[in-house]
Amino acid sequence: MVLSAIPSEAEAKQAIVEGIEKLRLTEDAATVPVYGSHYASQDLPKYEIPDEAMPREIAYRMIRDELTLDGTPTLNLASFVTTYMEDEAEKLMTMCLPKNFIDYEEYPVSADIQNRCVCMIARLFNISYRSGRQPVGTSTVGSSEAIMLAVLAMKKRWQIKMREAGKDASTPNMIMSASVQVCWEKAARYFDVEERFVNCTAERYVIDPEQAVDLVDENTIGICTILGSTYTGEYEDIKGINDILEEKNLDVPIHVDAASGGFVTPFVNPDLVWDFRLSKVVSINVSGHKYGLVYPGVGWCVWKDPEYLPKDLIFNINYLGADQASFTLNFSRGASQIIGQYYQLIRLGKVGYRSIMLNITRIADYLSAALQALGFLIMSKGGGQGLPLVAFRLDMDQEYEFDEYAVAHQLRERGWIVPAYTSPPTASIKMMRIVVREDFSRSRCDALIADMKFTLETLKTMDAKRIRMHKEHIKHLNNTNKQSRRSSTWSITENHSLQGKHGKTHGVC
């Protein structure tokens, strides 16, 4: 969640433009239209609940008008999050909005549908059954919560093992690539686990298996591997890490962060061995709201065996009339996204998912070829060897006066949201990324390519002075937006994250 700053009384009452608040307006008649009412000439309440009620049609219109200033989701190519679902799915999800999913006694079918989804996803990841042992899993509000749960499970299991051996259990560590999504840094910091990073290089943007295993010691609770880096979409060599751990006979589990790749790889690259077929992989998370094709937010976490989910973390509770086992960071939440996931799984089936994933992989390859023809250097892998996205950067040998951030800003003026980033340490390369989602058709792709070509032509016509003015304009807009949103700024100077220490920009998920 974004931290919000709470203004003082004086700041809350300060008008952007002085004078309009002095106008005296008569009370509205019942027949006055929305924009003839006094609400249209007043600022909407922002910092305190108003004393009086507002007519529902006016409240709806005023809020809707404000939301038009948001970006268009379908043109937001920064995010993996689903922006299209069929009408029938939306109707089912709307029907379930009032349902509190945690109330299993009142909504047993919704609870059973979650169980069905867990089973289907576990089998998609090639789960195996041992005699007398049953794999377990749960839904979450997204991969961030799923990762938090997985880290807790690994830490608790390690603590139990160390205490049984009579050893100190106060200094756990976890190994991961420096390209991890920020939720991994949060999990380590929130749960007091030392982060051991395998840094990226200008040629390698993912974890190196040998370097990762070299960081292992008796305090290592696990190794995080990523099935689809948020920067370049590349799949990490999970099997390589697994094989080295087996060769060295190290009892260190692997958790696979398959937030983006979990619903892509089984259909596009089924021969890639990354999942529960590997002996050291004990848990996997996946985002239903990314390539699981559900609106945000739903995620899933599966453990191959109850052995890897210590009972100390499970709460057996009697709430609202039914006994239930619970392992979540949340409690009350809606059932809508879970129902949406089930709809997609049975509506599309394996054939439908395969068709969609192959289509967007082809479009990503087409876009990659077009950007390369425009002079960009491609950093992502095509042909299904990575996620359906295109990571690219300018060729610095061309000595452009502008950078990737200027390209991103120019595209934004055309409506496209294509982010620019600074890659993980020690690579420190400026780059851009376009995520290809289900609703990014070939026609829309051609429109983007045309605008990208126009953007480059426009920037190339600018001299150094105009480029500097352009950068100052971007900086001014960013500062203005932050001030208007009243976002909290007290932590901007933090130096505990990779961004604070090295300038790494966290990619949008």
Automatic annotation (TrEMBL):
Biased composition (Basic residues): 499-509
MF annotations from Gene Ontology: glutamate decarboxylase activity; pyridoxal phosphate binding
Natural source organism: Eremomyces bilateralis CBS 781.70
Keyword Lyase: yes
N6-(pyridoxal phosphate)lysine: residues carrying this PTM: K290
Compositional bias of kind Polar residues: 479-498
Cofactor entry: pyridoxal 5'-phosphate
One of the GO BP terms on file: L-glutamate catabolic process
Annotated family: Belongs to the group II decarboxylase family.
Database matches in InterPro entries: Glutamate_decarboxylase, PyrdxlP-dep_de-COase, PyrdxlP-dep_Trfase, PyrdxlP-dep_Trfase_major
Enzyme Commission number: 4.1.1.15
Region (Disordered): 479-509
N-terminal signal peptide: none
Catalytic reaction annotation: L-glutamate + H(+) = 4-aminobutanoate + CO2
Gene Ontology CC terms, in alphabetical order: cytosol
Keywords: Decarboxylase, Lyase, Pyridoxal phosphate
Protein name: Glutamate decarboxylase
Keyword DNA repair in record: no
Lineage, top ranks: Eukaryota, Fungi, Dikarya, Ascomycota, Pezizomycotina
